[in-house]
Amino acid sequence: MLVWSVLLLFVLFQHQHIFAEEKKSTGQVVEERYHSILSEWEEKGITAASENEMAVLPSDFTEADPKNLLPAVKSKDYGDRVFYWHNQQSFSFEIDIKEEGLYELGFDYYPLGKEVVPIEGAIQVNGSFPYYESRRIVFPADWKNEKNTFDSDRFGNDMLPKQVASPAWKKTKSEDASGLQPEALKYHLKKGKNKITVTNLRGEMLVGKIYVSAPVPLKTYKEYGAEAEKAISSLKAYEAEKIFKKNSSYIRPEAKQDSSAVPNDPKHLLLNTLGGESWSTSGQSVSWKVNVEDDGYYHLTFKVLQNKETGGTVFRKVKIDGGIPFAEVAHYPFPFSKKWANETLGSKEGEPYLFYLKKGSHEIELVADASPAERVIAKTNEVMKEIEELSLSIRKLTGNQTDRSRNWKISEFIPDIDKQVLTWADELERESVYLEGLSDSEEESKEVVSIKLAAKKLRTLGGEPDKIPNRMTELSEGSASVAQLLGNFLLDIQKQPLTIDRFYVHGGKDVPPAEAGFLTQAADGVKRFFLSFSKGNYSASEADEKTIEVWVNRPRQYVELIQNTADRTFTPETGIRVKFSIMPDEQKLILASAADKQPDVAFGISNWLPYELSMRDAAVDLRQFDDFDSFSKQFSPGAFLPLMIDDSVYALPETQDFFVQFYRKDILEALNLPVPDTWDDVVSILPELQRYGMNYYTPISGSGGFKAFQTTAPYIYQFQGDLYGKDGMTTAINSEESLKGIQFMTDLNTIYSMPLQVPNFYNHFRYSTLPIGISTFTTYIQLTAAAPEIAGWWDIAPHPGVKQKDGTVERWATGSGQSAMIFEGSKDKEASWELLKWWMKEETQTEFATSLQTLYGPEYMWNTANLEAFKKLPWPEEHKATILKQWEYLMEVPKTPGAYMVERELSNIWNRIVFDGENTRSAVDDSVIAIDREISRKMEEFGYMKDGKMVKPYRVPSIETVESWAVDENEE
Q1: 146-176: string of b/e by CB count within 10 Å (b at 16+)?
Q2: What angle do CA 3, 5, 7 make, to 5 degrees?
Q3: What backbone phi and psi angles, to 5 degrees, belong to 184?
Q4: What's the pLDDT at 15?
Q5: The whole model's pTM is what?
């Protein structure tokens, strides 16, 4: 017994030693963050330089294609030679520094293109990135409303104006792309020659002069010299929704049905405010043009509604004519308030600031600013990283087994574990005190509560360190764990929403009150009460006999945009009137059809619904229309499979998902690992990933106890297996090919130690614990819209597959999306088909996708199923090429009367093999009996079998069937 104890101790100490080595190596995979590097420079005495600004001309760039150096006549009025920077190309230049120190880099640039995707680059100094933030520098482009007078829709509501790019020469300094640093990024340049390389990551622009300059501190308000001055006696009001320009197309006007908002109408939705959630990302800016009649000093007052969900303070940088006038308005706080408030920019003591404006036109700009919380964010990220490292260490020591009846002496193997955990609690408590100091509110914000609660949990865990292995759900793995609390905190603290109704440039005169009077609010309240009894603008209601009624299973902003587009193009072109309504519940479509209350057409419905409706004779077979076969060629053949019975098609694919490989370029490059092309490649990189505490993600890990077809079917298809027999009366998962696929699917977890459960791949991908894996369109949106710290350093590749004898790789994967269909009860099937074609044609889909993303932001990407329209979406070209390549292997699972049983049993098979250790063939054979029995029962129900014998075959849809339509058409 003593020998075994000694052996166990030795093994555990070896694990801990190996982990310590891995932890040391992991920290070197990517560069340190700017926050840490800046602190290191300060400790070494490296300070800001005092040397004057130096300019580098494009003609002095080296290591660049000379074809991209354009003459002055092509410089967009720059007046000198410029460099055309695009297509991931690089240029370098050398700068001779006389004084070692910290410098800032500035750029003259002219944005090209009209994409919503930002222009991005990376900066290296003397051959390396000085810190991680230098891997992504953003060059913002300006946007404007096409016009500041808003058109009305058919209901009398204001419509969002079209957004147009407003290119012009701009000068900017390289800044942190996440907007968390309070000042421009600094670069350490040594005395003598320094080589700076600028690489294009995305987008295109013209580059003029590049400036290398010493940082210049802002003046204080006292140095600004306005304290003893007197304000000009005047009052001018400006409506915030009527902007001059902005650096994000999707900062948009909002309609507030609020008596205090100006203008206001109880009946109609008027775009009367600006911002809110659309203006909450640090770095987003809005500017307005103002005119003053006299030289002199003025006050600035903003009528704002700052009701951030968490109750925290938000910040804005205040700029006038492109510059911050003095330090006190570099990070100006707007406190939480549930009501409208007039915020006159001023000191904490309540003394209003004075701003000097010369007679004429000026530009007032506000920039969303999360930088006051930067130190808290940096420390929280640091603690989260260390929690992940400790958790990994514990999992290795315990074999990732949780047994509450077993006691661990974890402190013997990690001697300082209690000190480490309590240190985290101390650090978080210090940050909570700092965070409280940023707010004037007497009530604690949700952010402060979250960080205090995390510290409290850590203090409890640190008091009993030997119980931590059995309380991992409290530390890092549960929904209420410290890691989860801190993760949510990081998302909340960076949001900076602010709604502005109007602002005033004024002097001695008082501004109007922010809130409307009691009588006005009471009168509007009564009007809104009576109006509430009428139907909403987009509520589902019967249309007249000459109007096609469409139910749309999407949010209001989608329906508004579709209706306005149809009113502008479809109805004038065809004479067919159409009314779009928000679908109350797609589950009720079957009941609505049974009651003969169905619409003519439905958009945005799940791809299983048309099949269910067609089995009840409630859906129109689209192949009855003469031009269907030719129209269908715009879609992936595999997308039609769940929408078919025999040769009939009961819906069009509307949107389409994709399963592709997401990978962190920075981490794979640092580990010198290739991007896998086949499953053999995946298996070959696993040891190196796992050596660093990382792993590979598959969708099976992201599902719960039930493994849907989307997670299991690709393995069967890639190994050339099938789910159904040729006559559809039995399953084919017991064929040799299918068995190979199932065996490999389970080996990934049982032999190759891929994670069994991952609640959120997006978070693990961001924090590098799962730097590569297979995921969907949802992850693509999350990374594009909500992971600025790694933008430019992740990419996608096709789904790994199985290499065939001829050298090709089978990458078959599913791609469920939404569909659009016509009901059998439609009053005019031909007109409905014309509408369906208009909606899904290339031009409409391209315009809708572009408008949606431009108006509402990158998170409103539209994954159209029309392949030609998809090629024109405002997405990165290289990503579209990858997705289109993967869609060549799109094979959705066909629907059959017993499909649900096949799906359920495949999930059961995985669970029995992985968790119970059951033999693969035995597990499959048991499930085949249950599946075939259920298929027979359902086939009897729908008339394909009688008394156990097949009456008519059930033809399982196939890609070959869909592809034959185009062949038949060509033969005709």
Answers
A1: eeeebeeeeeebbebbebebebebbebbbbb
A2: 70
A3: -60, 150
A4: 40
A5: 0.84
Q: What is the pLDDT of residue 876?
A: 85
Using the predicted structure, report yes or no on whether residue 10 has a pLDDT greater than 60. no
Q: For the chain, give the number of residues.
A: 972
The answer to whether residues 813 and 659 touch, using CB atoms and an 8 Å cutoff, is yes
Q: Which amino acid is at 448?
A: V
Q: DSSP letters along 92-153, please? A: EEEEEESS-EEEEEEEEEEEES--SSPEEEEEEETTB-SSGGGG-EEE---EEES-SS--B-
Burial class (CB in 10 A: 0-12, 13-18, 19+), 26: buried
Which amino acid is located at 430 in the chain? R
211 exposure class (CB count in 10 Å sphere: 0-12, 13-18, 19+): middle
Q: What is the DSSP letter of 828?
A: -
Q: Both tokens of residue 457?
A: 């949990």
Q: Are 772 and 761 in contact (CB under 8 A)?
A: no
Using one digit for the tens of pLDDT, what is the confidence trace for 696-751? 999 999 887 899 999 999 999 999 999 999 888 999 999 999 999 999 999 999 99
How wide is the angle at C-alpha 251 spanned by C-alphas 246 and 254, nearest 5°?
130
The pLDDT score that the predictor gives to residue 196 is 97
Fold for the domain defined by 547-656+816-887: D-Maltodextrin-Binding Protein; domain 2 (3.40.190)
Q: Going by C-beta distance under 8 Å and a sequence separation of 6 or more, which residues neighbour residue 805?
A: none
pLDDT grade, residue 491 (50/70/90)? confident
Query: Taking a C-beta distance cutoff of 8 angstroms, is the pair 247, 140 a contact?
Result: yes
905 by Cβ neighbours in 10 Å (0-12 / 13-18 / 19+) ranks as: buried
Question: Per residue in 616-637, pLDDT tens?
Answer: 899 999 999 999 999 999 999 9
Task: For residues 914-937, give the mean pLDDT.
Answer: 94
Beta bridge partners of 199: 90, 122
- Is the preceding omega at residue 263 within 30 degrees of 0, hence cis? yes
Rounded Cα–Cα distance for residues 451 and 932 (Å):
54
Does position 505 have pLDDT exceeding 60, yes or no?
yes
CA pair distance 431, 428, nearest whole angstrom: 5
Q: What span, in angstroms and rounded, lies between the C-alpha atoms of 457 and 536?
A: 47
- What is the architecture, at CATH level 2, of domain 44-213? Sandwich (2.60)
User: DSSP labels for 712-753?
Assistant: HHHHHHHTT--SB-TTSSSB-TTSHHHHHHHHHHHHHHHTS-
pLDDT at 402: 59
* Res 118: pLDDT: 84
| Residue 91 in tokens | 């240029």
What single-letter DSSP state applies at residue 708? Answer: -
Contacts of 755 (CB under 8 A, 6+ apart): 695, 697, 701, 749, 770
Which of 862, 863, 840, 839 has the alpha carbon at shortest distance from 852? 862
Distance of CA 781 to the CA centre of its chain: 4
Looking at domain 221-370+496-515, its CATH superfamily turns out to be Galactose-binding domain-like (2.60.120.260)
Dump pLDDT digits (tens) for 145-203: 999 899 998 888 999 999 999 999 999 999 999 899 999 999 999 999 999 999 998 89
Distance CA 651, CA 645 (A): 11
| Dihedral, CA of residue 524, residue 526, residue 531 and residue 532, to nearest 10 | 110
Quick: pLDDT tens for 412-468. Answer: 888 888 999 999 999 999 999 999 999 877 788 999 999 999 999 999 999 988 888
Q: What is the C-alpha to C-alpha distance for residues 875 and 115, in angstroms, rounded to an integer?
A: 8
Helices within 148-305 (DSSP H only) = 221-224
Question: Considering Cα of 787, then 790, then 793, then 798, what sign does the dihedral take?
Answer: negative
**What pLDDT was estimated at residue 11?**
38
Assigned fold of 660-813+891-971: D-Maltodextrin-Binding Protein; domain 2 (3.40.190)
Q: Which phi and psi angles does 552 have, rounded to 5°? A: -120, 125
